Amino acid sequence: MDNIANKVATIHTQRFDQEPDVFRSPGRINIIGEHTDYNEGFVLPAAIDRYVYIGISRRVDNLIKLYSINFDKIVYSTVELIEMQEEQWANYILGICKLLAPTYSHGFEMTVYGDVPIGAGLSSSAALESAVGYAVNAVFALGYDRMQLAQIGQQCEHQFIGVRCGIMDQFASLHGRLNQVMKLDCRNLDYSYFPLELGDYEFVLLNTNVSHSLASSAYNDRRSQCETGVAQLQMRYPEVHSLRDASVEMLDLAIPDPSEQSYIKSRFVIEEIQRVSKVCDYLNEGALDKVGELMYATHRGLKEAYEVSCPELDYLVDYIREYPEVLGARMMGGGFGGCTLNLVKKTFVAELIERVSKAYESLFGIALDSYVVKLGEGTAHVH
Ligand code: GAF
Questions:
Q1: Which ipTM did the prediction report?
Q2: Which of 17, 157, 242, 362 pairs as cysteine with 40 (C-beta 3.0–4.6 A)?
Q3: Whole-prediction pTM value?
């Protein structure tokens, strides 16, 4: 039995005098394939064992009452009149409710708790959207499947949060499987699972504990630059629908000036999509040193070409690179803060964390958090 689910159920019952159903949805890592999802490329995410929990009980009237255990805040709404609030955590929930609202007519009480670090690039917001969508869908028997719920989560980001994100995060949260990585084709949403076997190595997350404020506007800018790249490619290659369809050679002919931003951003994406397939092969072959090299290559691209890194992330990757016990490191997620993902020899993890934490704190005056990654499972009814 999941202790956190019990805790959420107890708090919900005390506050609302109703025994809830409890659902949970995980955060995610992404081994490789960054900023490829909205370009119809491939990604390689996996659910982690950190979750957002939702306790929910139906009401007979039309009131919606939301309580966040993390923030100790309560927010009210009605089914018919859902408006965005000052509390950002509530907006992820209300956005989902608004998108689902035409299909249900009763209100509910909801209690939310999460142990996915917020702003760490581990998709705490997608975990919340996925948990809420799944929970409302289940208690009102709305009939959506996981694929549709992932798309609803993505729409919530687009319409109510203002981030034109891809589908990776919500998809990974809803479809995660214990100890499995998924290769997702973001064009047609075909996906397959394979076990993550790292032998003497493990993935370690180092959380910079910074989250720079330009993240969502810069994210949307990158997406627009990719769209410009596609439009330029289409002038010469009308069959191109997305950067997924292009090669570097095609880009060279379509955008002759390699200093144009659309060229630089598009080239990164084209190369990153190729890295995903290579990493899949290397993981199958157990060639972890080659996986690590490509992680470093991704970081370099995200830093220099895509320009979504920041000094704290770069420092961590540069610091780690000195150690032969670390095969690869890179920033993960949208960028401008959050975590680096590191492939580290198990016997060296404790020593590495001690050293890098000291060095990071003395330079930036910020405590570093670290987690050895354990994979988790996708959205589920847990109580
Ligand atoms: C964020 C987005 F939400 C994802 O869709 C993806 O684009 C990612 O950044 C970058 O790979 O997590």
A1: 0.99
A2: 242
A3: 0.96
